[in-house]
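note to self — DONT lose this again. spent like an hour looking for the file last time. sequence + predicted structure for the chain T wanted, 125 res
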Amino acid sequence: MQSNLFVSTMRTLVPIVVALVLSWTGRLGIPVDSEAAASAVALGLAAAYYLAFRGLEWLAGRMAWGPLQLAAGLLLGWARPPVYDGQKTELPIRLVLDRDHLDTGMAEALAALRRATEGGKGTGG
């Protein structure tokens, strides 16, 4: 669990550090008179940066495009999102446009789901 804490921390801090660097508006030639305005710009940039690269990482994962997912993850500070114990059960399903194959695949997926959920129940001893 500690490594997941480190991963989630890195993925939070890297966008904030990037936003702070980008918010040094004076060096970019953008005059900002108020420290509050500069802070708001920094927070907005951090949020936009995180959402853009987290969304890109999610989209690349859905498309099974590994290099893009890796690049987006690295730009967030860690190559992969943190995974916590007991967070999810994955059921791989391969879609074949054939009724018999689809029925078989769904039956296998349901059996795997039953095994996963029954394995977590205690005997109540």
